[in-house]
Amino acid sequence: MTAVLLLAEHDNATLSPAVAKTVSAAKSLGGDIHVLVAGAGARPVAEAAARLDGVAKVLLADAPHLGHQLAEEVAALILGLMPGYAAVVAPATASGKNILPRVAAMLDVMQVSEIIKVVAPDTFERPIYAGNAIQTVQSTDPKKVITVRATAFPAVASTGSAPIETINAPPAVDLSTFEKAEVQKSDRPELTAAKIVISGGRGLQSGENFKTYIEPVADLLGAAVGASRAAVDAGYMPNDHQVGQTGKVVAPELYIAVGISGAIQHLAGMKDSKVIVAINKDSEAPIFQVADFGLVADLFQVLPELKGELEKVGK
After folding, report:
1. Burial code of 190-213, b = ≥16 C-beta within 10 A, e = fewer?
2. How far is 243 from 247, CA to CA, in rounded Å?
3. The pLDDT of residue 230
4. Residue 271: Cβ within 10 Å count
5. How do strand 144-148 and strand 164-167 relate by DSSP bridges?
6. DSSP structural state of residue 196
7. Backbone phi, then psi, for 111, in 5-degree steps?
8. Which of 114, 122, 171, 174 yields a CA-CA distance of 20 to 30 A from 223?
């Protein structure tokens, strides 16, 4: 296989941690890996991408109309580059899922979505049925368009020194315009990159209880805060905290599920966590079937006790 184009996810200042994991997947495709950084004032991102092991070159497309990485603009940029590449890959995040399907349609090929393993350059494994089955798919398309479930791959180190090549962006497509972004600021780790995640479900009963019981423990552990779909639908937490099939997929070193029954949709987003701890007063809750450690207890009693013990040991 010839070179692979990897679309970097970033905010024009910092590179998403998912990119280092996507490079790991791209290595299995064979050929040189070229990382595309499309943005405005994104030179620091290109420099970070150039340090990733396995990257042969970084392509920096810097233009005002690429500043917000609108799908139409980035897809047009990628399309112009594809004659020189056998595959284009991106993390299976909101951004990657927005951009790459457009590229696939413009190339008239089928996208291979959310792969968790590269069997061969044309053969991949991906979860289906909310992660209850693993499907092996083989693509015969001349150009491969692939999104990668980053949590399934290890991150590469940042000890490389790839060259950075500045490329010209095509003229603006102007099919859409950026209006605004509502971004929550938090001192806690980003959900998909956190080493520890503590999530609450409908058992928390209110958004105020998330603040009273979940967040203090999260702060002591240096953990990110997640939520089940039921908790999000009930208005306890914002959508960007949702973990599950229709939310974010996480695979931290430690996942603590509090007041979560363990519906199949939620398990699809967290069952690859290294260690899973479940706290639920219902001993028959499905979450206990995947938990490494389970505690059948009232969360309103357990969490204050856990908080007190963490404070004692200086967490």
Report:
1. ebbbbebbbbbbbbbbebebbeeb
2. 5
3. 95
4. 21
5. unpaired
6. E
7. -80, 140
8. 114
